Amino acid sequence: MTEQAALIDLVTATARQTGALIMRYYRPGESPDPRSWVGSKGVDNPVTQADMEANALLHQMLMTATPNYGWLSEESPDHPERLEQQRVWVIDPIDGTREFIRGQPQFAISIGLVEQGRPLLGCVYNPAREQLFMAWHQGGSYLNDQLVRVSNRQQLLGASCLSSYSETYRGEWEPFRDELQLTVMGSVAYKLALVASGYYDLTFTLAPKSEWDICAGLLLVKCGGGRVTDQQGNDLLFNRPLPQLTSVLASNGTLHPALLQRLAQVPLSPGQRR
C-alpha cells in the first residue's frame, strides 16, 4: 500500500469513527443530548462534550499512526513544537458547533494534513448527512468516493454563494443581496466542501478565521478545480505561529478574478479593522 493510500484510509476511518461518536449526541431539530454540556470559549464560541470527545478520538487515532507529525487543533492547547514538524495535522473536531447545538445538519469534522505549510490531504465529513469529502494534493476531489468538480459558472452576477450566519446577522452581506444568490450556511469547512463539489459557485469571508476552519476545505476546492485566496489574491499558508487568517475567498476559479475585483475595496469585518 502506498503512503497516500495508507493516509487516506487512516483519515477515512478516523473521520467515520469520530462522526459516529458525535452522532450519539446529535438531535435533529433539537438541542443536544443533556449529557453534552454546553460551555463557552468566548463570545459566540460554544463548546460541547462532543467537541472534546471527538478531539480526543481524533488525536488518539491520528497521532498513534503518525507519531512524528505535529498537531494543531481548535480543542487542544497549542504547542510551538508543531512549527518544527514537516507535517502537521490541522483539526477542527466539530466545525459548526452552533449548528450542532441547534440540531441543524450544517456541521462537519475537518481533518487537514499540512506539509511545509501547504495542505497535503483534506477531509471534511458531515455525519448528519453522511457526506465524506476527500482530496489528496495534485489529485481530484471526492464525495463518498465519487469524483466531483466545481461549477462551470462564468458570470459573477447571480452566482450562488454561501454566506455566514453571524456575518449575515451583522449586516455584512446586505451589499451583495442584489448581486448574488445567497444561502446562509453553518460551518466554513462544509461551505468549502460544497463549493468544491459544484453545489454552489463560491463563498467568502472577510472576518477572521482559524487555520483549522479552512485547511481541509481549501484542498477540496483546489483539487476540484477551484481557487482559494485571501482578499489580495495571495495563496494561504498553514502551520504559522499565529494560526489565523484575515480573509478567505473560494470560488470555482473562473469567477475568482471578478470576485477579487468586487471585494478589493470592501473593508474587513469590524472585529479586525485597524
- Unreliable residue runs: none
Largest sheet: 7 strands, mixed
Portion in helices: 25-40%
The number of domains: 2
Might you state the CATH topology name of the largest domain?
Answer: Fructose-1,6-Bisphosphatase, Chain A, domain 1
Give the ordered list of helices and strands.
HEEHEEHEEEEEEHEHEEHEEEH
**Shape field:** globular
Q: Count all strands and give the number.
A: 16
Percent strand equals 25-35%
CATH superfamily of the largest domain: Fructose-1,6-Bisphosphatase, subunit A, domain 1
Radius of gyration: 18 Å
Question: How many helices does DSSP assign?
Answer: 7
Looking at the overall shape, the CATH architecture of the largest domain is 2-Layer Sandwich
- CATH class bucket of the largest domain: Alpha Beta
Alpha carbon gap, first and last residue = 51 Å
Instruction: Order the strands across the largest sheet as they lie in space.
Output: 3-4-5-6-7-8-9
Q: What number is the mean pLDDT?
A: 93
What class, by secondary structure content? alpha+beta
Topology:
Blueprint: H1 3-23, E1 38-40, E2 46-48, H2 49-65, E3 70-73, E4 87-95, H3 97-102, E5 108-115, E6 118-126, E7 131-136, E8 141-143, E9 146-148, E10 160-163, H4 165-169, E11 181-184, H5 188-196, E12 202-205, E13 209-210, H6 211-223, E14 227-229, E15 244-245, E16 248-251, H7 256-263
Helix pairs in contact: 1-2, 5-6
